[in-house]
Every structure is written in C-alpha cells, then in structure tokens.
Write a structure and sequence with these properties.
2 copies of one chain form a homodimer.
Chain A lengths: L4 H19 L4 H5 L9 H14 L1 H9 L14 H5 L5 H22 L3 H4 L2 E4 L3 E4 H25 L18
Antiparallel strand pairs in A: 1-2
C-alpha cells in the first residue's frame, strides 16, 4: 500500500478505542507485568504513546512545515513515561491518550495537507533527512507495533502455563 | 503468572470487542492484505478464530472431561476458514466470533471447573499428553498472538512508506 492520509486515519482514529477494549477491566498482574529487566509493561507502553503524541508526531510535523532554516527534530525521550505516568492509573492514561490523539488528528485534518507538503523534508537527529509522509506513515506502524507489543507482553505471562503448545504459539518465542 | 481462570476470562471476554475496535470501518486494503504468498490476511485470521471456537477449545475440553477411554483430540484444520468465510463480510465474521465466543465462555463458566478438573489430561495428536489447564492457558495466548499478528500484517503494508524509520519499528522486520 502507498501512504494515504484517509486510510492512515482509519487506523490512527481507532487506536484509543482498541486499547480501551483490550485493556479495560484487567487485573494489575496483566497491566504491570513485562518481559524481563529493562522491558516495558502495558502501563509503560501507554505512557510512551502519550509522550509520542505530545512530543513526536505533531511537533515534528510542525518543524517540517515551518519556515525554520534548521529543521532538525528534538531527540525523542524514550524514558519520559516513567516520570510522567507516576501516580496515574491505567484508566487515567487511556483517557489522556484518547484526548490528545483526538486533538492531534483534528489538527492534522484541518491542515488538509497537499501531496507537495507531504513530500517536504525534516531532519531526524539519528538518521538524517526524512519526509513528512514518512513521519506520518511511521505514526501508523508505531501504533500497530505497540498494540502487538502489548499483546506479546501479556501472552508471555502464560509461557510456562501452556505446556507443549509453546512451540505452536510463535508470539511466546519472540 | 500462574494460570487462573478468572484472570484468563479477563482477556478472553474482551477479544471480540478488541477486534471490533481495531477492525471496524477499515478499507478493504487493510482487511485483505497479507504478508506474502501463503500468509493470512486479517479476514483469514478472524475466520480462523471462529473455527477454533467451533472445533478446538471447547470440543477438546469436552474430550478431556468425558469418560472416553481414548482422549485424543481431532486434528485441527488450519485451512477451514478459506471455505467457511466464503461470501461473508468481515463484519459478518466479527459478529459470528462475538456470538460463539460469548456462548463458549458462558459454557465454561457454568462448568465451574475445579483444580482437579484443570489437571485432567487429553492427548494432542501431534505432541501427546496435555492438561486441561494448558489447553485453557493456550486459548488466552492464542487470542493475544492473533491480535499481534493482525497488527503486524497491517503495519507491514507501510514497510516501504516509512523510509529510514524501518530500522526503529521492529514489527516491520519480523
């Protein structure tokens, strides 16, 4: 598939509700478990998604669309959620994500980006020149990647409970 | 985590709604794309989940709980959905899945399984003796594995659209 802003919206708009459906009413054991030392729990991942909404997708889009000479993005902080999520419940985070995602998509819609604008460039601090279209396509794959990650983190909690089925459930072996 | 029937229910009960949230209102391009020859689309995966409800979890549970001398499960047909889903829409399949899952969980609740029953054994046609508890734990990881698979199949459609971010979005490289 080629990137298409309407089709990308179909995914981006649904992610808050997907996370609500997947994660509402879960016991703390499901929410706070992870895959081992220095890996993220579901709670950490939702906090990370919020931080992306606040500092990544739209702020970087704004840099690309700006008239600044230097269009280098701010480096992204992969650990910000550990501080920002303190004292909050998963329900708080899911609502915060729903709200900021909705605002960001509303903003993006109003921009009504042209193909020319989608091809404008910015500079990623690690790997250099990228286009606005690449940034926006990444937003979609990033959502889907973290939905898959959350599913994997939770599935792995039963890795020792499934007996010989371990070999058949490939997500347990990644 | 050790397998616990109440905590397992928390996941199993939500899967139909998670799939509805993730997949409703998507263009056909998202629904029917796959990862290449002999791989499954989202449409195929939802059909497979229905076939599991009909022929795997509860039928195998019933074999384990039965008084039959031979408790060998019927081999599972991994390709049944290609025939069974013909002529149906994804919305049809999602509703069919919601209904059969609801019936199966209701049945399981009414059984009110004891720890002793959870440790009863059946025979898997490929890898031999398994316990009811292992079968039921596998049901949970199987749901989560296919939610992750659906996310991955859709994410990969933008693999060539994200430019250098490919390296950062690990789901695109699995």
């Amino acid at each position: 598939m080629n990137y298409n802003i309407d089709k990308a919206f179909e995914i981006l708009e649904q992610t808050p509700q997907t996370l609500l459906s997947l994660l509402s009413n879960l016991s703390d054991e499901w929410i706070f478990c992870n895959e081992g030392k220095d890996t993220w729990s579901t709670f950490d991942i939702v906090g990370h998604l919020i931080h992306c909404e606040n500092t990544d997708w739209i702020p970087r889009l704004n840099i690309i669309l700006s008239n600044h000479e230097d269009k280098t993005f701010e480096p992204f902080d992969r650990f910000a959620q550990f501080e920002n999520s303190k004292g909050k419940s998963l329900a708080n985070l899911l609502e915060e994500f729903r709200q900021i995602r909705s605002e960001n998509l509303e903003y993006l819609k109003l921009l009504d980006l042209s193909e020319k604008e989608l091809n404008l460039k910015g500079v990623h601090p690690t790997f250099g020149t990228v286009s606005l279209k690449e940034l926006l396509a990444t937003w979609v794959t990033h959502d889907l990647g973290h939905i898959a990650q959350i599913s994997r983190v939770m599935a792995k909690q039963y890795k020792n409970e499934v007996g010989p089925w371990t070999a058949f459930i490939s997500i347990l072996n990644t």
